[in-house]
Amino acid sequence: MLGQIAYALPFLAEGFALTLWVSLLVVVLSLIAGVVLGVGLVYGPAPLRWAVRIFSDTIRGIPILVLIFFVYYGLPAVGVHLQSFWAAVLALTLFKIAQVVEYLRGAVASIPKGQSEAAMAIGLTFRQRLTYVIFPQAFRRFLPPWINGVTDAVKGSALVSLLGITDLMQAINQVIGRTYEAMPLYILGALLYFAVNYALSLASRRLEQRFAFIRE
Amino acid sequence: MAATSNNSPALLDIAEVSKSFGSVEVLRSVSLKVAKGEVVAVIGPSGSGKTTLLRCVNFLESYDSGSIRIDSKEVGFRPGPARDSGARQRRSERDLAAMRAETGMVFQSFNLFPHLTAAGNIMLGLTKVRGKSNAEARSIAEHWLGRVGLAHKADSLPAELSGGQQQRVGIARAVAMEPKILLLDEITSALDPELVGEVLAVVRSLAEEGMTMVMVTHEMAFARDASSRIVFMADGGVSAVGPPKEVLAAETTNERLRTFLARFRASHF
């Protein structure tokens, strides 16, 4: 039994690498887009604020599985054909953007108005105020929910297996299909997902401690 | 101390400024000229528009009509193109920032940046707005911290300072930018009584050096001693203005002012 599993390890490793790759893409893309849209939601003109609000509320109200199928099977109907890999990344990223937008809005809203005013009063421009005054303070509040969201993204990436993409989950299922060794393989899979997420939460705790000195 | 007269151009020229929040008129055609080196104290009951007026001067608040000029340049707005019959336009973000850098402001609630040290609070504007090097900004910050008696607190975070110390850093942060005019918004109102003196001493020394200041204050004794003129505001307008002795005289004929002063004396003396 162990021999069969050992034989499948390189295949499993490839699946694991793909899981990490999908997670990384989703986390990085959603962070960039989410912060941009989040700033739009807090500071933008009314039409932009409404657009972001509608986007965020809609996406958060749809099960992520529906979103994945919608992007993969639905978009071709309007002429957008994506490879299953990119369809999965897009769907997961859209879902995550909506969360990042909310984390950012909450973190920025928690900074007292006087901070912006003091920054304005010394002549900082909008971008400088965000960079040097608002974001450094908001970061501490943004970080804990965001890291939670990152671990969700790693776990949620298992859904891409439903589009036939060979991520860790799909690789495990395929090896089980050949070996009928369900238990050891699922345990191995669980351990790998756990290892990634545990490392993330350790890193998060260290970061939070580093920024704990900021008090109002 | 300089006196304003109509032929010397005022450093700060507030002309017929009006502003409403919804249906509430908070400023009613307020006019006030402040000459270079003058210290003007603005007093009046809560809701009289004092703080709003101050916040309009560095455009933390916009105003609906009238004009505010510093060194004859209009704050917040510029004339629009002739095809719109010259209707005023809000200045660009960059323009506004540059204009705000010319006025310093000290806040009632200090508003120090909690993630930066005392020196860091002062250095931010010097490096990012004035374009000074870190070393240069640091030495300016240390100079001003020395001036407000906090040389030894340069590397302390705001949370490690008392209220009076925080406010002195707030003053140092504003004056280190070498503003043309310093705006003080009830800067001792959030302080414990025993800490008020140390902050007022700093303001007094700035006044003696000729810093132009407009201060909204409830410290009547300080307004009397440190200012060259007192403006009494009521219901969004300037109700009385003049040298401290005149405005604070008990026998004033201004009904609003007499009520205000009587109430004030009853509660403070």
Structure overview:
- The complex is a heterodimer of chains A (216) and B (269).
- Chain A is an all-alpha fold.
- Chain A contains 8 helices and no strands.
- Chain A has a single domain, classed as MetI-like fold (Orthogonal Bundle).
- Helices cover 81% and strands 0% of the residues of chain A.
- In chain A, helix 1 runs antiparallel to helix 7, helix 3 crosses helix 4 and helix 6 runs antiparallel to helix 8.
- Chain B has one domain: Rossmann fold (3-Layer(aba) Sandwich), CATH 3.40.50.
- Chain B is built from 9 helices and 12 strands.
- Chain B has a 6-stranded mixed beta sheet with strand order 8-9-10-3-11-12, with helices on both faces. A 4-stranded antiparallel beta sheet of chain B has the order 2-1-4-5, covered by helices on one side.
- In chain B, helix 3 runs parallel beside helix 5 and helix 4 crosses helix 5.
- Chain B is globular, with a radius of gyration of 19 Å.
- Chains A and B meet through helix 5 and helix 6 of A and helix 2, strand 8 and helix 3 of B.
Radius of gyration of chain A: 21 Å
CATH class of chain A: Mainly Alpha
Q: Given the C-alpha coordinates, what overall shape of chain A results?
A: flat
What is the quaternary state of this protein? heterodimer
User: How many separate domains make up the residues of chain A?
Assistant: 1
Total number of strands of chain A = 0
Q: What percentage of residues of chain A falls in helices of 4 or more residues?
A: over 70%
| Global shape of chain B | globular
Please report the first level of CATH classification, the CATH class of chain B.
Alpha Beta
The CATH fourth-level homologous superfamily of chain A: MetI-like
Low-confidence parts of chain B lasting 5 or more residues at pLDDT below 50? 1-5
